[in-house]
Write a structure and sequence with these properties.
Layout (H helix, E strand, L loop, with lengths): L10 H9 L14 H9 L4 E7 L4 H11 L8 E6 L4 H11 L5 E5 L7 H11 L4 E5 L3 E3 L3 H8 L4 E4 L3 E3 L15 H6 L12 E5 H6 L5 E3 L4 E2 L3 H7 L3 E4 L7 E4 L21 E3 L8
């Protein structure tokens, strides 16, 4: 388990001084010395990305990883938890992940769609000081993780909004998605509201201390819909990246409509709760 957070003093404060210009609208607005920021900050703070998949077509996973592995500020690793019950799709995911050196595929012990349980597997497998939870049916602008690095901190939980690509949209060659990002944005549906489950990024230490995600609220499979409430109860400051500095696009497809959200900003207390039997998440 990784512990700690961004260093106070030394490298961490040097990077903050270079790039952090506090703003009520966007607290991580960049300053002039981007290259020095990347050298000091990204090289000394470790970030793990964790995704969980369940019978997701390999082509969609390939699009997702094609954007995550070509970031201007790369992560330490990308942990993909494979819970696919369909053997052919399980094998597709294995073949796709093998193409990307940053990606570590972990077979879930539960071959079922319980997003909390499967993301908890990824959290415990991750090695970064920070963990970013997200979904594998999304695309990320090349500078998305750079903006996450700028914004995250030991007292923060970072979220984001997202746009959508229409169902049936032809994404073309995965290898050229980064070069065609402007075209994708032009053809996407802009975000209508904040989507708190698009990404959730906070310290590994906090996620381990509260024993991970703790529930799935049926029937929508919103994973741990009280997560943001719990972070705020612990004094963490929620911060949204917004749509301007970097973007996330959801690949709309009918087979998993509303299945991959990580949290809900307004949990419905009347929905039944399924608790994880492995003990994680109980606070």
């Amino acid at each position: 388990m990784a512990t700690g957070g961004l260093p106070h003093g030394g490298v961490g404060e040097q990077a903050r001084d270079l790039l952090w210009v506090p703003s009520r609208a966007y607290p991580g607005r960049p300053g002039p010395d981007r290259g020095r920021f990347l050298q000091l900050w990204v090289g000394n703070v470790t970030l793990s990305i964790v995704e969980a998949i369940w019978n997701l077509p390999g082509s969609l996973l390939n699009y997702n990883l094609a954007t995550l592995t070509r970031q201007t500020a790369p992560p330490l690793e990308i942990v993909v938890v494979n819970a696919s019950s369909n053997q052919a799709l399980f094998a597709e995911a294995e073949a796709v992940c093998a193409k990307y050196p940053l990606v570590r595929l972990v077979a879930a012990p539960y071959m079922t769609f319980n997003l909390s349980r499967n993301l908890n597997v990824g959290i415990r497998e991750s090695r970064g000081e920070y963990v970013l939870l997200t979904a594998a049916d999304q695309l990320f602008s090349p500078n998305l993780l750079e903006e996450v690095y700028r914004t995250m901190g030991p007292g923060r939980v970072v979220g984001s909004t997202r746009g959508d690509l229409p169902i049936g949209f032809d994404l073309g060659d995965a290898a050229t998605l980064v070069e065609r990002w402007g075209d994708l944005l032009a053809k996407s549906i802009p975000p209508q509201k904040f989507s708190p489950g698009t990404i959730i990024c906070t310290t590994s230490e906090w996620l381990h201390r509260v024993r991970g995600l703790d529930e799935v609220r049926c029937p929508y499979n919103y994973c741990d819909s009280d997560l943001l409430t719990r972070t705020q109860m612990d004094g963490l400051q929620p911060v949204s990246l917004g749509w301007g500095p970097a973007q996330i696009l959801h690949i709309a497809h009918p087979r998993n409509n509303a299945l991959y959200y990580i949290t809900s900003g307004m949990p419905d207390r009347n929905l039944p709760v399924v608790r994880n039997p492995d003990g994680w998440g109980r606070i």
